[in-house]
Amino acid sequence: MLTTTLITDAWVRSSYAALGNLTNHGIPVNVADSRGLGMCQASRRKSRFSRYRSHYTDEAGFVEDVASICRAQSIGLVLPSHNETEILSRHRDQLAPGQDALLPDAAHCALFNDKARSYKFAKSCGVPVPLRVEYADVNELADTLSELGWQRCVIKLRTGNSAKGVFYAQSPIEAADTVRKLIRDFDLPPDRLPQVEEYVSGEGWGCSVLYWHGRRVASFTHRRVREKIATGGTSTLRETVMNSMIEPAALRIFDEIGWHGLAMSEWKVCPDTGRFWFVEVNPRMWGSIALPISAGVEFPYLAWLCATEGEEAARAYQAQSVVRHPWRSRWLLGDLTVGARQLVSGDLRSAYTTLFQANADALDDFFWDDPLVFFGELGVYIENVVKGRSLNPVEKGMIG
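^ ATP-grasp domain-containing protein, sequence as received from the core. Prediction below:
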């Protein structure tokens, strides 16, 4: 009998990509979420859906609920999808032996989920990073930036995801005002001041990996063709492209820390000079994971093979797989929102390109054999607008 897997945070695209990938191999998959609405919830592929308490509002209750679901449903493996990854890793002792095999090390998750610590770690690995301003008094920040000759800069909260917690300033005074507002809004203590970095211009790239107890099993590189927010964030269109500069840099980071599990590193690459800079590591599944899966690097299934049959079985499977180059995948709902925003602003040419000239080989969120999935995703965004007045609302605990 194949090992039943539980996927958490079931509403998101990464979870559905994993659900589709695993069930394509005949693996039974149960899903769970704090929401009743979502992509996996609406899918015909799931074996069973359960609800748990939100890990943002009740961490202990969330872990208790997941452990209870695992016991009641004879779950063999837990595959988390988003921010709950670190929480489950931290409380892995509440899961039965073996159920935690796909979870990364909690300390490694905590390091990469802290932008300040991950920046320092990447720098210690000899990886290029944007220049960062060290400051203790926000009242001196504007003068410091002026002395450096910086006008534009990037301000990052130490915790954040999908462009949440990232802000841009066009002058030293605006930067200092933004930092003051963030300190006030998030009640930040002196040891968690926002990070202030130089603005680096370039294309967004990602290098994704599967490691098994410190050993690399598979990797994949892509370039972001279009992003939901022009300054960076979730990609709506991306393509497979090799990059001989960022790939060894990314692997150096994961080798050095002795990574275990799935992760994606993000980079900025200047298309004119080839210079590149480390941005962050997502120590979990990532939003664009549908691209490598459809292109021939089936990360969820490879991880499942490592846990159930051993890493050599995963290596052998990947060795006989054909990786498609070039290959593009598209987040349809994301592109619809980008196109609508361009239409409203009067940029008709860009809207036409976004909506009708994607030239994608695969979609993240619309499937003729599982059509309700798209409407489950759409329902979540409508719910977000109604309840939170935003397509991408921030919950307590997401950023700070």
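The first strand starts at residue 5 and ends at 7.
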